UniProtKB/TrEMBL annotation:
<dbReference type="InterPro" id="IPR052037">
    <property type="entry name" value="LPS_export_LptA"/>
</dbReference>
<feature type="signal peptide">
    <location>
        <begin position="1"/>
        <end position="35"/>
    </location>
</feature>
<dbReference type="InterPro" id="IPR005653">
    <property type="entry name" value="OstA-like_N"/>
</dbReference>
<feature type="region of interest" description="Disordered">
    <location>
        <begin position="168"/>
        <end position="198"/>
    </location>
</feature>
<protein>
    <submittedName>
        <fullName>OstA family protein</fullName>
    </submittedName>
</protein>
<dbReference type="GO" id="GO:0030288">
    <property type="term" value="C:outer membrane-bounded periplasmic space"/>
</dbReference>
<dbReference type="GO" id="GO:0017089">
    <property type="term" value="F:glycolipid transfer activity"/>
</dbReference>
<keyword id="KW-0732">Signal</keyword>
<feature type="domain" description="Organic solvent tolerance-like N-terminal">
    <location>
        <begin position="50"/>
        <end position="162"/>
    </location>
</feature>
<dbReference type="GO" id="GO:0009279">
    <property type="term" value="C:cell outer membrane"/>
</dbReference>
<dbReference type="Pfam" id="PF03968">
    <property type="entry name" value="LptD_N"/>
</dbReference>
<dbReference type="GO" id="GO:0015920">
    <property type="term" value="P:lipopolysaccharide transport"/>
</dbReference>
């Protein structure tokens, strides 16, 4: 994480991310709850490992920037993106007195994908509030479980409960322009008659 340091220069994606979040605030519609079962049993106490093509660390600000095919892994959850920025604190160990970094927040931008063994979610921007165990995905969000798909503008996943909350979408389930509504496509089990025919 701290190797190959270079002087930090603000990256364009950070400004774009802030503008995008402001824009989406204006178009959100009432929330629709859904189950994010794949995240329900996620180990939020597991360490987070990050690898990327390039990294920059801002020691004075307790921040680090990763760019280029970034992967952040925590237990069985993987976040991939073009850029990732993390914020951390440096608490001291009560026994040794030594300080070590503890991640507080992870911001991802550029083709963001969040994947578990059972589910996958895609969007333009993701924010992982580590202490609160909340993951927010913004911008043309798509959540997939098997053959079932839900589209929306913003998805909030509570890793404590496995509950996902989706805001209204600007894109229909077929990719067409929507009207600020959450859209979904769900597979249904075969009818009893179909079972009898078999």
């Amino acid at each position: 994480m701290y190797s190959g340091l270079k002087k930090y220069k603000p990256l364009p994606f950070l400004k774009a991310a802030a503008l995008s979040l402001c824009g989406f605030t204006l178009i959100l519609t009432p929330l629709s709850a859904l189950s994010a079962q794949g995240f329900r049993h996620h180990d939020t106490n597991a360490p987070i490992d990050i690898d990327a093509d390039h990294s920059e660390v801002l020691y004075n600000d307790n921040r680090a920037i990763y760019s280029g095919h970034v992967r952040a892994r925590q237990a069985d959850m993987t976040i991939t993106a073009a850029y990732v920025r993390i914020a951390y604190t440096m608490p001291k160990n009560s026994k040794t007195g030594e300080a070590s970094p503890q991640m507080q927040r992870l911001d991802a931008s550029g083709g963001v994908t969040i994947q578990t063994p059972d589910e996958m979610a895609k969007g333009e921007i993701a924010i992982y509030d580590v202490p609160k165990r909340l993951v927010t995905l913004v911008g043309h969000v798509e959540m997939v479980r098997g053959d079932s798909v839900v589209h929306g503008a913003r998805l909030i996943i509570d890793l404590n409960t496995g509950k996902g909350t989706m805001d209204g979408s600007l894109v229909g389930s077929d990719g067409s322009q929507g009207k600020g509504r959450v859209t979904g496509h769900f597979v249904v089990p075969p009818s009893n008659q179909d079972n009898k025919k078999q």
